[in-house]
């Protein structure tokens, strides 16, 4: 989940998580009727980097009439020119449900974000992101929704959206305006996409079947690690007035019927975002305690050991283990923390590595992936870094991949036809799968990509052989055949998101987040509402 303030009322959200009996029935496969992916010969032609957001043009024939910079209240219906709109179509739109909007400023510039709209049945007060509507008109006379977000520094950001048309089912188009402390700072048009099954999809396809589902009552579940026939699910606290997170332990010896074994939370530390294990020790990334160690020699009854590093604890967001190394990605202060865990219970701090940029001073390492002696770091705004950590005291940056308005978030790396290939995803509206040839880190090339709808985002991914499993928030679990990495071929999916599930939120960072494919024949995923989901591995 993104960890920077978002304009248009987007709350400060800290981005959860870390990486991440088979049916042969392919009926209904996403790419049914097309040939399967074939082995790649290693040749490729670099393709154009278009960024995450692609300008699709003006969404609706309406406008907020005052010019930018005007001192004004955006919540003024008369200032919206809706004379060219289609009110009869708007009367047919669903007036309840969860919509995610794509905003297009009139300037045609990259938007700062979207606005999630949650409209309850029965006429109750809805929300935009986490903010309750201060105006909620959605009836036969039209649609006008207004919300106000006040930043921690007291800046009031008011966003107003006026409906104009319904160009296709589950979509509402219109225009919007944003006022910051009473001054018009942005205006344009929007496309609101109701987050139901899209593109005519079923719940599942390609033989990816749900084996079991287990609720997680602790906080907002975001990640899972599986070892010793147990699934360790970690949860976060999104806001101070929301339930605290922690650790929920399931015995998954019987994948059809997981058994809840233990729930753990610590006072004053309700943001547990990632987990990994080595031998009998479970490592948990937390916001307030750094990395917490638990003894899992009795896997159903973890017991607290201690937290590392000593001193003022950093806000550790993700982590992973590679051999005798533990890599922890800290948001504040922004650093990659390296431990020697030859003795798993007694991590030895080796170094705190900082990658900085004068242009992107707020960048931080979000996630990382180890492969064949290299450490790949998703360093949000700075980009996707390739580093050599062989000497932990002198970690070398070998190269990076960067594009406009990047927010590098997660990756997986493998070898195909003698080439080192990275699958990378950012996290924001329009985030999608990128395929990068990183064989020469000093000359990284974009050689493939795959996009879904522009109102959802990737969270994490796991590469198993030539199959890539992707946790794609509201678009669920997606499985790709990447035998030819230049042409990722979607072969299966499971749409886990249902807007009627308990505790669904009108934010882009919601749905399937954490994922593991440990090689035991199953896929373990965490959905922010439904909890632990277990599928068959393809």
From TrEMBL:
Pfam families (alphabetical): LVIVD (PF08309)
Disordered: annotated span: 26-45
Keyword Signal annotated: yes
Keywords: Signal
Signal peptide: 1-21
Keyword Signal set for record: yes
InterPro entries found in the cross-reference section: LVIVD, Quino_amine_DH_bsu
Protein name: Lipoprotein
Organism expressing this protein natively: Corallococcus praedator
Lineage, highest ranks first: Bacteria, Pseudomonadati, Myxococcota, Myxococcia, Myxococcales
